[in-house]
Amino acid sequence: MNISNIFLPPFPPDISVNELLNTMNRKDKKPIVAPNAFMIYRTNYFREIRNDREISQSEVSFMASQAWKQEPQIVKQTYYDFSRQAQEIFLAQNTVNVDDNIAIKKYFIPFVEIAAGKSSLLKRTTTDSELFLLSQGISLSQEITKEQNSIQEAFVSHEIFDELKTSNIYFEILSEQLSIVFDFQDLKPTENLHLAIQKALKSNTPIKNLKLVFQEFGHYFHTKLIFGNKLQRIVLKENTESLDYSKEFDDIFEIELVQPFDSSYMIGMDGYPIELSQIRKWLDIVSNRISEWSIIKRIVVPLYKILDISQQREIENLFINDNFVLMFETTQFLDYSSGYQRIEYDSQLESDNYQLFGNVLTRHGEKIENVHVKFNMKTEFGFSVSWHDFRQDHVQAERSARRPYSLRWMLIGCPSEIGYFDSNTRDIPVNLGVKELNFIYDSESIKIDVGKSLFQKNIVMLDIEYAPFPTFLFFKTNIVKWQESGSIEMQIKLMKEEDEEEAMLIDEEEKEDEANAMLIDEEEKEDEEEMEDEEEMEDEEEMEDEENGEDEDFIITIRWSILNLKNDSEIDIWSQLGEVLE
Q: Region Disordered: start and end of each range (predicted)?
């Protein structure tokens, strides 16, 4: 005797819809699709029968299918009601909005196409998002590229689009009857959407604010709605390595030749299972039952693609996989004599994968040469900066500590990764690079290839590091020649405190300080000079010991950042950070 003839789950079900949905969840994940009436019935069937018998899931599916046929209409109607409740819960949990009415101006007129036809699809899905879109009948317009859709998906805040790897089998049979088509070119944004996008783009966190805009207005808009009926099956297969294919079938009954899973039945939109042998009859019936037609497929476009061309370009530029100046700031030193300061950002960044460049400025905004600036301890919240002034003795350093010196710095990175993009620096592309090379002490010059073309009035920032050197040494660079092909020839000088010949011109305020220092009595000057001579001799002896191999080569790391400014009026400001190519 068939067990399905003697076993039926209790009625009414002693379990709520939420409890059934929790039972159907896989590994604490939300369901990818809303369950239909039969799926809920089968879940409850398995729940009741597993207490007394050990049977496989495929056997349970067959038994549940046979039992469902024997159930009276009142039982089926109860599970249909469960299915509608489950659909409401499912939709409430998903934030992938499609065509919010306030986003589109409604002066377009759709047209109707007769689309009678049948088709089928058998596909192995590899991600939750792929399975979700297939089961919901959502597909992109052919006018939209994969890159354009990935931009819109970046604004969708839902775990379905986390691209988690799965291995599922999706099988559907469609009976298409008619289509309602909207001309893509007729779709125009409302003034409210235009203004909301404009405000988000002008902010320093445009991607974050654009997410909020699309959550309010929607993520996609329909360009085509296909009506008819469909059957589908979803089999959750973990580690199905052998099913590495995706194929569309011109003749739906070729599916009988492919048996990767139990394809003996399909599930209708009403939740009722239909055996494969009855599908021909089902196709003939649904074409004449207009009352049973519903939307079975949706062709959509990303909402951002209906915006003005200028706004589309601005959004797409946020996702260019290239480096830009994301921040350009001036920070006042709290205590210049300390040689160290921690700087915090106004808002948390999304990543710490960025580069920093900067220089020390006088209170008049002039760059101070021979001050070594080093950035470290970079996080999403801020960074630390240390500096050493090579141009002055201890007396001058003490006086400089009282001056309002400041740090002019910039942060460079990829906008979509960092999540911050100053609205005033978005038209400044950056050539960012790093290279290790052999350096011979006191060599005349070295050459590097920056990998991109160079142009007159480019701003070049160079930073050289050699880990074994102590912090009171640094390399001073001077560009002597460059070529449009991307070659830069530079002189490198190893700086140390005693290099009096390298001291630079001091600003007017420093000159006044020097004049005042001349008033020191001769006796104090002689004492200071004697002390300096002794210290210089000691330092020279130490340096001779350390530099016995000064003619030998060693490895240095060169970081460069090259700005290509479009506005010549900005050169004076940005030249404070580097050299201008002449």
A: 510-552
Query: Tell me: the pLDDT tens digits for 303-348?
Result: 888 899 999 999 999 988 889 999 999 999 888 878 889 999 998 9
- Please give the Cα distance from 323 to 365 (Å, whole number): 26
Rounded Cα distance, 113 and 120, in Å: 20
As a whole number of angstroms, the distance between CA 181 and CA 225 comes to 7
Cis peptide before 12 (omega within 30 of 0): yes
CB atoms within 10 A of CB 216: 14
Please give the Cα distance from 532 to 393 (Å, whole number).
Answer: 10
Q: How far apart are CA 175 and CA 252, in angstroms?
A: 11
Q: Tell me the residue ranges of DSSP E strands in 313-466.
A: 324-332, 340-344, 355-361, 371-376, 382-389, 406-413, 430-440, 446-449, 459-465
Mean pLDDT of the chain: 74
Tokens of 307: 């915006």
Distance CA 204, CA 572 (A): 24
Query: Residues 194-212: what's their mean pLDDT?
Result: 93
Query: Where do the domains of the chain lie?
Result: 3-92, 98-317, 324-499+550-580
Residue 204: DSSP 8-state = S
Both tokens of residue 88?
């409401």
Sheet order of strands, 355-361 included? 324-332, 406-413, 355-361
Q: How far apart are the first and last CA of the chain?
A: 95
DSSP state of 551: T
d(CA 389, CA 471): 11
Distance CA 410, CA 412 (A): 7
Nearest partner of 249 among 279, 219, 213, 216, judged by Cα: 279
3-state secondary structure of 147: helix
Please name every residue paired with 332 in a beta bridge, in sequence order, or none if there are none: 406
How many CB atoms neighbour CB 217 within 10 A?
22
Within 8 A by CB and 6+ apart from 214, the residues are 97, 152, 155, 156, 303, 304
3-state secondary structure 78-135: HHHHHHHHHHHHHHHHCCCCECCHHHECCCCCCEEEEEEEEEEEEEEEEEHHHHHHHH
